[in-house]
Amino acid sequence: MIYALARPLLFALEPETAHHATMGLAELARRCGLLGLAARRVPAHPVEVMGLRFPNPVGLAAGLDKDAAHIDALAGLGFGFIEVGTVTPRPQPGNPRPRLFRIPEAQALINRFGFNNVGVDAFVENVARARWPGVLGINLGRNADTPPERAADDYVLGLERVYEAASYVTINVSSPNTKDLRALQEQAALEALLARLAASRERLAERHGKRVPLVLKVAPDLEAAQIAAIADSVRRHGVDGVIATNTSLARDGIERLPQALEAGGLSGAPIRARATRVLSALAQALAGEVPLIGAGGILHGADAAQKVAAGASLVQLYTGLIYRGPALIAECVEAIAARAPA
After folding, report:
1. Is 172 helix (H, G, I), strand (E, B) or coil?
2. Where are the alpha helices (DSSP H) in 68-208?
3. Which end of the chain lies in a sparser environment, N or C, as judged by fewer CB atoms within 10 Å?
4. Which residues does 96 contact at the CB level (< 8 Å), separation at least 6?
5. Is residue 41 within 8 Å of residue 330, measured between CB atoms?
6. How far is CA 137 from CA 6, 65, 134, 315, in A?
7. CA 70, CA 64: separation in Å to the nearest integer?
8. What is the DSSP letter of 44?
9. 8 A C-beta contact, residue 176 and residue 168
10. How many helices (H) and strands (E) does the chain have?
11. DSSP 8-class letter at 264
């Protein structure tokens, strides 16, 4: 209810300004003990995935809290897990503003942020200040000025720096907003990257006495042969989970709407079917051997349940929160719970 009243005011602001205002309001509500007024109570529906116990299967996707600066405030909304980032080894400003665009007629966003973040050192300090004890995913990327042939160096460095703080680590090779990043989804490049990360993870597991799950985040614009190759690489290198999917370069269904021609990744309702198609294809290719996290186009509880029906063990929200507010979290948990066997 509170978000429904606030949304017209927030939507009157430039989108990125509105985002920062919303994060500031969430922090203020947390300090005042008022976060409970912003959302419905989220029912418990615990699940165990990747050796981790989640109080419910509905999480926050990476991108909303890029710098891990608002973990405690976001946790107060009732998420079963939170993913922060994308973080790169060195700080970078991202692409010039404006770089976030609403398409309300389609319940969609286009962003071309370009991994703007404070860099991994400041990021890890922010994580250390958080008091929330829940499941925290950390999403890694490469710096925009790192040559593509050195991309693995950035991911390995990031993994080393965040390993101790993370419940799981996501390898983001699917953002459309860093030049040549999606080329890392191609078979030879992905094989090389995952081999290095798997070896690094084994060294880190021995050093820290814990094995942190590795998750791969893929694009919704993959063809069948690419999906099959990715599934093979995921199995071969012991990747623990796959997020399907990131944002899309397609503009299906929004071609004639204002802002539709802006460069960047499309998210929200228009990519629901495309993202679910990739999720379903991965579920078939992996045959239950590797858990999947469904993301892309979840605007209602039924959308979350559809992701689970397609093979997801967990789901993540981002654009749906912008349009529906925190009440969407409980709605999704309830819808997933309703389809579970008694």
Report:
1. strand
2. 71-75, 120-129, 151-162, 187-208
3. C
4. none
5. yes
6. 29, 11, 10, 13
7. 9
8. P
9. no
10. 11, 13
11. S
pTM (predicted TM-score): 0.97
Catalytic residue among 175, 267, 280, 313: 175
Block residue for tokens 């990327």: 141
Distance CA 319, CA 236 (A): 33
Phi then psi for residue 191, to 5 deg, are -55, -45
Which two structure tokens, joined as six digits, stand for 301?
A: 């509880």
- Cα distances (Å, whole numbers) of residue 267 to 17, 33, 176, 303, 331: 19, 32, 12, 14, 20
Asked if residue 237 lies in contact with residue 199, where contact means CB atoms within 8 angstroms, the answer is no
Rounded (10°) angle between helices 224-236 and 272-286: 50
Instruction: Tell me whether residue 313 is one of the annotated catalytic residues.
Output: no
Closest CA to 25 of 77, 102, 79: 77
Calpha distance 147→14 (Å, rounded): 33
pLDDT tens digits along 43-88: 999 999 999 999 999 999 999 999 999 999 999 999 999 999 999 9
- Residue pair 270/252 in contact (Cβ under 8 Å)? The answer is yes
3-class SS of residue 97: coil
Tell which residue, 305, 301, 279, has the closest CA to residue 291.
279
By CB atoms closer than 10 A (0-12, 13-18, 19+), residue 37 is: exposed
Q: Which domains does the chain have, with CATH numbers?
A: 41-339 (3.20.20.70)
Q: Which two tokens stand for residue 313?
A: 């063990």
Residues near 28 by beta carbon (within 8 Å), at least 6 away in sequence: none
Query: Which residues make beta-bridge pairs with 105?
Result: none
Token pair listed for 230: 């990715």
Polymer length of the chain? 342
Residue type at 18 in one-letter notation: A
CA torsion, points 95, 64, 322, 278, in degrees to nearest 10?
A: 90
For the segment 137-164, what is each residue's pLDDT rounded down to a tens digit?
A: 999 999 999 999 999 999 999 999 999 9
